[in-house]
Structure prediction request, 749 residues.
Amino acid sequence: MITKTMNRLNPIAAALVAVFAAPLSSHAQQTPSPKTDASPAVLQEVVVEGSRGDFNANATSLTKLPADLHDVPQSVVVVNKALMQSQGANSLADALRNVAGITLGGAEGGQIGNNINLNGFSARTDIYLDGFRDRGQYYRDTFAIDEVEVLMGPSSMLFGRGSTGGVINQVTKKANLHAATEVSASATTNGLVRTTADYNRPLSDTSALRLSAMAQSGKATTRDQTDVQDFGLAGSYVFGIGTPTEITLSALIQHNHDMPDYGLPPLNGHPAPVGRDTAYGLNSDHTDQDVAALNATVRHKITPDVVLRNQTQFNYVRTSAVETAPNTIGTVSAAGFTPLTPSAVSGLPLSSLYVRGQSHDRDIRDYSIFNQTELSAKLSTGSIKHELLAGFELGHDGYDNQGHYRNGSCNGKALNPTSTVAGYNDCVPLVNPGYSAAGSSVASQAGNRAGGSANTIAAYLNDTMTLSDQFKLVGGLRFDRYIASITNSLNTTNAPPAAKNTTLPSAQQTINFTSVRLGSIWQPSAEQSYYLSYGTSFNPSLEQLTGTTGQQNLDPEKNRSYELGGKWDLLNDKLSLNAAIFQIKKENARSQVSTGVYVLDGTVRVNGARAGAVGHITKDWQVALGYTYLDAKVIQSSALDGTLGKIPVNTPKNTLTSWSTYKVAPHWEIGGGATYMSERYANPTNTVQAGGYTRWDATVAYTQPKYDIRLNLFNLANKMYYDALIQSDGGRSVPGSGRTAMLSLNYRM
Prediction:
């Protein structure tokens, strides 16, 4: 039924163009409804922000969007501080578990940090910090974050390249004129100890300073190989508050000393059937990261209806990684390690199998600097009101990745052919590998050094037209010029034949692309809004500043989305509901037709539906619910790819997130919820499947005006499930944490 409905959405783009071209004068004569333009929305926002512990956030901080979510013709999910604290969510990955349609990826061969799939497509480069691309490869914490906003669907008109499945924006804490200090401490049954502090002080009637800090140490999950030692400091200074010119200076500094988790190798079409705590890395493995983000924003109100805004952000991430991943299953004999095909492995006892480890060592420098100038204005042309946004963006990205490899042996026999840099460094038993330092003494050697840089120049214009109190039209265009270049020190020209290297010596690419955004909104009352929208996005082949032969001269992949949905406020605006059906189609996906040769003849289509609810059902009972259905399929590809008719990696058909709390007494609160995810595949050919699961969590809290004491219980049933999937090496799966408890204290001064 959903597929048939979505197929009927294909003419939406043409319909919206026709709506824009239609005469508008008739709409201006309609009788106004009780909804007014601005004041009710402002009053409502103040009430929401003044209620500590309220999950409902009916506004967004993105300057490219209207603050009122009813005026956004797309699905938007906001995970605020109250919801994160209630669930004990201390990382971006934890916060995003509230967003149905998101799945997590683990540490890939060339990628570190938060790797996320959104609506069936990779969102690796679609994570933002205060509206700017946050492309660095690092593990993001929530100590300096007020909320996380997820905008669903292609949005290149607003954000430039990428955003096939949507955009994830982190909103940092900003200084304000309300003095407040909050200190927290927590400890888990795994041994993870964490503390945070948040200090905000007004310095005058128009200026304020805010500082946030975090430190944590211990095991992040019940699995081996998950020890962390992290700390961070963030600050913001705002002056000119309440004046025509407001300036905000902010900074984030973070250090991570973590252990990578590459999960379990595949066996017989599923993750290897070993214990949850089994780890194939070495106890000497580590991922060290230093993160710095600097931001300066100037906002000048020229008139009450015209605002000029300029924002500059610099991001820098340094990563030093020594990592070992399970690569291939095989047997060990006097001849050394022998890799086995999946069919050869079938039927052999687990005790006879070994896992070959592969080093993934590298030193990475990832940085970007972007500047945006935006002019927003409210004006009228006759009876039609306009909210215009015009912007200009300049940006530069830089990337440097010095790879290292450790060529070791197994049972006294070399694991690597002569002159290759594969980095196979050891072999361990599949069952009870004895997580240790085996193989860590293998000498590390310099491998490929990959470099890349890109320059972005963009201009955009968006108009939200109010035809009457009930009807609005949204239209926008953005032009991007993206110029990228990459280099590799080990490549097709100098690698030995045995290495089978397909890396480009160098490549350059210049892309010019125009993105479109169209939408129509019908708001019959202040409590309901219905919309129809169309959007596009594009993915250059050098988008991630990496590339292999045959890709450098390809045009960008193009994506289109169609969405029909509604948003409703119930119970005196205390409970917000939303629902939508949509289609996202990548119509010219890169497809490999022979070794090193690619063409743009692939097609990936996702038909879907989503629904959500957040807010209070009664004064004491509130919920945050989300459901997403994804019918994702590769409907065109080459025979060599082997993906025709397959489901994209890490894309479950059904995802449900739920969280609910209830005040059982004046100072006592209980709550909990379930996360359900249906089966999904760990590799593009769908030969490795991770089963579906339901995970239950719970909380109980004692609250006072000055402090909260909270107990969070994770994975109550101790369910064995797979939290993150990694498509490399045949498809690896990272088990989720077992049953864990966390006790926390929040104290407010």
